[in-house]
Fold this sequence. Notes:
It is a single chain. With 294 residues, the protein is α/β, with parallel strands linked by helices. It has helices at residues 138-146, 193-207, 223-235, 254-264, 284-293, and strands at residues 11-15, 52-56, 60-64, 70-74, 80-84, 118-122, 124-131, 164-170, 173-179, 210-216, 238-244, 272-275. β3 and β4 form a beta hairpin. The protein is elongated, with a radius of gyration of 28 Å.
Amino acid sequence: DGGDGGRGGDIIFEVDENVNTLFEFKNKYNFIATSGEEGGKKKCHGKDGEDLIIKVPNGTIIRDTNTNKIIYDMTGKNTKITLLKGGKGGLGNMHFATSSMQAPRYAKPGGEAKELYITLELKVLADVGLVGFPNVGKSSLVNAILNQERVIVSNVSGTTRDSINSYFNYHDQQFVIIDTAGIRKKSKVDYGVEAFAVDRAISSIKEADVALLVIDSTEGLTDQDKKIAQIIEESGCGIILALNKWDLVKGVQTQKFQQEIESDAPFLSYAEKLFVSAKTGHNLDKLFKEAKRI
């Protein structure tokens, strides 16, 4: 009168908006759902194995490692797929009882566990580099966009020493935000750590798909801003002028301010100019809408 065995657990992938990277998979390779338990006496059914739910960022691509084919694109809130179904539980000996053999010594084994080798990739629409002169509010912008204190903000120039990557999801599309060190005039750059930081910032511009040139609206377009814009131009990546601290500018119309920039730097006439504020959040959503378009 042995009962049936429980089924094995499923392996399920699920998008979690609180997960932004695939870092936790770096050193963990094997994911195994639990097996079902054996059936018991008196036709007792074995307990089913627990499903294994694996949380991944929005925009994760699941590939078959052997064929490199995409199995599933985990894009979209609440996306959830069962990648591997657990094996069926075995049949207890009660199924094989006959009038002449009430307690057969035979039971049907359950289904074998399935195995699959996969590769996870994070689909990134664009690497967006925030660049500019020191203390124009780059780190404040990153924190405002991410809605968290991801990077240190200080009134002291040069607080950001190395490029810091952060992941941001905008309308189900993943961006990498690269906060870079402020780029001062070459004659004022100290050798050592600051020189390294500036080199890393310039390298980040070359690696980015779109560069957000952050400008302090209270100072206007400076000569150093124009030099940084030229570096962006030479790198071949897209450019957006993010005119930060606009909440502090009084009595100036955006159209007039924009005309002054284009008159002073005609080579930037084509670039999109967005008047933003890290403090109030004004127009921050438009930054990534424009980055997506570029």
